[in-house]
Structure formats: structure tokens, C-alpha cells
Design brief:
Blueprint (H helix, E strand, L loop, with lengths): L1 H25 L2 E5 L14 E5 L9 E6 L2 E10 L5 E4 L16 E10 L1 H7 L7
Antiparallel strand pairs: 1-2, 2-6, 3-4, 3-6, 4-5
Helix pairs in contact: 1-2
């Protein structure tokens, strides 16, 4: 009976993940997995967060952008006079050298971290054990 519960939970996780992928292709939302330590203690390696593309960003927003080794999430610490943004990881001692234009920002963090339990709860009535 335990194997049936595991298979059921695995199936629910696949359905939820597929739903999130479809949702992110139809909306300005994206589900992202953190792959670094620069935002600790706010975000940790492996955390899942939801980003939302926006037409404007402000100081304090945690935003995603293309980094050297893939997507990065850092906090906006300043909007510069030329309209660019200065970012910094919460775990960093100095700000980022590169300034971001608004069109370089993939989205702002709107929800997270999301736990596996929250993903299962989002599946709602699909879970029957």
C-alpha cells in the first residue's frame, strides 16, 4: 500500500510541475530553483520561487537576471540616475559591478520559497490516499 501512496504522490508532483510549466508559458510568471548562495539567509540553494515579469522595479525587489553561469537572483539596492539598477546579493559584502537595465530583468520574486508540501497542497483534491 505504501508503494501506491508513493506512486500517487509522484504522479501529483508531475501534474503540478506540468501545470506550473504551462502556466509560466501563458503568463508573466516563472518557477525558478535557486542554484547559489548569494541570497542567504533569505533564499537557500534548492529553494523554489515564483517570479513575475513587470514593467517597473524598485529598491528592495529581489529580481532575476542573466548572470555569468545562468540566472541569478539579487536584491535591487539602488536605482541610478540613468535608469539602471544596482543589485547585490544578501550574502555579499559589495554590490554587483554590472548595472541592470529594466529590459535585462527577467522578473521579481513574488512568492517563495515554495516547499514540496505547498506544491502538493496546490494540487488540492487530486490527493486521495
Amino acid at each position: 500500500m505504501r508503494w501506491l501512496a508513493r506512486v500517487g504522490l509522484g504522479l501529483v508532483a508531475v501534474i503540478v510541475a506540468t501545470g506550473l510549466i504551462v502556466l509560466s508559458s501563458l503568463t508573466p510568471a516563472s518557477l525558478v530553483t535557486i542554484r547559489g548562495w548569494s541570497m542567504q539567509p533569505t533564499l537557500h540553494y534548492g529553494d523554489r520561487v515564483v517570479l513575475w515579469r513587470s514593467s517597473s522595479y524598485e529598491k528592495g525587489d529581489i529580481v532575476a537576471f542573466a548572470g555569468h553561469a545562468g540566472p541569478e537572483l539579487h536584491r535591487i539596492i539602488r536605482q541610478n540616475a540613468d535608469g539602471t539598477f544596482t543589485t547585490q546579493g544578501d550574502n555579499a559584502k559589495a554590490d554587483d559591478a554590472n548595472r541592470l537595465r529594466p529590459d535585462q530583468i527577467a522578473g521579481r520574486l513574488v512568492f517563495g520559497p515554495i516547499t514540496p508540501l505547498q506544491l502538493l497542497i496546490a494540487a488540492g483534491g487530486l490527493i486521495t490516499l
